[in-house]
Write a structure and sequence with these properties.
Elements: H1 2-5, E1 14-18, H2 23-36, E2 40-42, H3 50-54, E3 62-66, H4 73-84, E4 88-93, E5 106-109, H5 122-138, H6 140-157
Parallel strand pairs: 1-2, 1-3, 3-4, 4-5
Helix pairs in contact: 2-5
Length: 167
């Protein structure tokens, strides 16, 4: 699955989206992928903006969808558009399975039910972490170079304080 996201030497675009409670998972994957590889996009959760993102979608690109129950019709529509444009879909869903699973290239069905009024994202985050690790290992040279470059940019920007060294 990491190979879909880490194609070399000319990386495909990787696009990720989550809605309601899954947008934080999509943002987490996006943030890591930004460091690991170029051409990563986080789609805003507002459906009226999706046609603008679709303009840049092309065959071979990868769409990562987080769709946990209360499946949204708009996500199905976005997936259909992506499929029409020749994209691959990686879907994170629950045991009840999002309708997107019918056409997805890869489906991760994760356990979300816990003894609570809310579904849990713990297992989904675990699988996302494993995917991030597999992706960074599959293109380690690119990842390492990008991490070095990013560290240099962060140093120049002085966004963060240097840790105090205790003697």
């Amino acid at each position: 699955y990491a190979r879909l996201l880490g194609h070399q030497p000319d990386p495909r675009q990787a696009v990720t989206i989550g809605r309601l409670l899954t947008k934080s998972l999509a943002e987490y994957l996006f943030t890591h992928c930004q460091v690991i590889r170029p051409n990563v996009t986080l789609i805003a959760p507002t459906p009226s903006t999706w046609p603008h993102y679709a303009l840049n979608m092309k065959a071979g690109d990868v769409l990562v969808i987080f769709d946990i129950r209360r499946y949204e019709h708009e996500i199905e529509t976005l997936n259909r558009i992506a499929a029409e444009r020749g994209m691959h879909t990686i879907l994170f869903t629950d045991r009840w399975k999002s309708p997107v699973a019918k056409t997805a290239t890869v489906v991760f069905r994760v356990e979300t039910e816990v003894p609570s009024a809310w579904d849990s994202s713990v297992v989904t985050l675990f699988v996302v972490e494993a995917l991030i690790e597999a992706l960074q290992n599959s293109i380690w040279k690119t990842t390492r170079d990008r991490m070095r470059d990013l560290e240099g940019l962060l140093e120049k920007s002085q966004l963060f304080r240097k840790p105090r060294v205790l003697l």
